[in-house]
């Protein structure tokens, strides 16, 4: 909008950089801008719309700064969960504001997951669909964790990236993302409860499913292996 308001000359490269990456028919956007002329009333509305958007952005920034200030005294209680892929400092603050820093209030990670509306469930019985309503906590926490999950799977060859694609093959995108969000929340629960670092129990086996086995040879087994491979071991024995 700033580009359009400041000049009647359109720079195609600058405009294209502002267009969303998934947007189709980008050329049509440029065609719509070429040869345009903004009337005074249109300029007025666009300018005031931009000022209003800038004002809202400033309020959002002010709220985020205030949140960081208020969370600072307990930063040691949750800062380490930002080591989980997809969890930013701001995300960590919002998550902690929902679940707290005392994990003993939950009987287990399963109860926390259920409370957040992320439990896998069979919502149909005897042909009748059950309620799929999520808890009030889930109304705020669940969407945030889904956003964190979407961020976590962007890094190729990462743990959550591979987990997501493994689940997606069998269950589809939506269920795979919910599964990743659930894994993130379970990790948060244990990290806050015990102070441990992010280290899923299946990390090594999942990331490296076929580790190379080291060969431990004795002198006798090494000589036997070489002999079986066609080498003349008499030369080695003579030199030794």
| Shape descriptor | extended
Strand content range: under 5%
Q: What share of the residues lie within helices?
A: 55-70%
Q: Count of DSSP helices?
A: 13
Uncertain ranges: none
- What does the radius of gyration come to? 28 Å
**Class of secondary structure makeup:** mainly alpha
Mean pLDDT: 81
The total beta strand count reads 2
Strand order of the biggest β-sheet: 1-2
C-alpha termini separation: 82 Å
Question: Topology as H/E string?
Answer: HHHHHHHEEHHHHHH
Sheet with the most strands, sense and barrel status: 2 strands, antiparallel
Q: What's this entry about, in short?
A:
The protein is mainly α and 240 residues long.
Key attributes of the depicted protein:
240 residues, mainly alpha, two-stranded antiparallel ribbon, 13 helices, 62% helix, 2% strand, extended
Describe this structure in words.
The chain is mainly alpha-helical and about 240 residues long. A two-stranded antiparallel ribbon has the order 1-2. α9 packs across α10. It starts with a helix and ends with a helix.
Topology of this protein?
Elements (H helix, E strand, L loop, with lengths): L1 H5 L5 H7 L7 H8 L6 H32 L3 H4 L10 H11 L9 H7 L8 E2 L2 E2 L6 H17 L6 H13 L1 H22 L8 H5 L11 H10 L4 H7 L1
Helix pairs in contact: 6-8, 7-10, 8-10, 9-10
């Amino acid at each position: 909008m700033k580009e359009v308001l400041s000049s009647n000359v359109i720079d195609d490269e600058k405009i294209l950089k502002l267009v969303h990456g998934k947007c189709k028919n980008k050329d049509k956007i440029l065609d719509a801008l070429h040869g345009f002329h903004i009337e005074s009333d249109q300029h007025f509305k666009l300018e005031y719309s931009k000022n209003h958007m800038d004002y809202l952005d400033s309020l959002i920034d002010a709220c985020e700064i205030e949140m960081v200030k208020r969370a600072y005294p307990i930063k040691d209680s949750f800062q380490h969960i930002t080591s989980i892929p997809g969890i930013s400092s701001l995300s960590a603050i919002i998550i902690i504001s929902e679940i707290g820093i005392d994990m003993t209030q939950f009987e287990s990670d399963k109860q926390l997951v259920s409370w957040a509306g992320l439990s896998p469930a069979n919502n149909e019985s005897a042909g009748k669909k059950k309620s799929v309503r999520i808890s009030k906590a889930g109304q705020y926490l669940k969407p945030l964790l889904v956003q964190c999950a979407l961020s976590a799977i962007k890094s190729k060859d990462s743990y959550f990236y591979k987990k997501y694609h493994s689940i997606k093959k069998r269950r589809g995108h939506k269920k795979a993302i919910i599964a990743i969000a659930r894994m993130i929340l379970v990790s948060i629960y244990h990290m806050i409860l015990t102070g441990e670092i992010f280290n899923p129990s299946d990390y090594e086996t999942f990331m490296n499913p076929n580790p190379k086995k080291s060969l431990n040879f004795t002198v006798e087994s090494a000589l036997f292996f070489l002999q079986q491979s066609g080498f003349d071991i008499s030369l080695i024995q003579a030199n030794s």
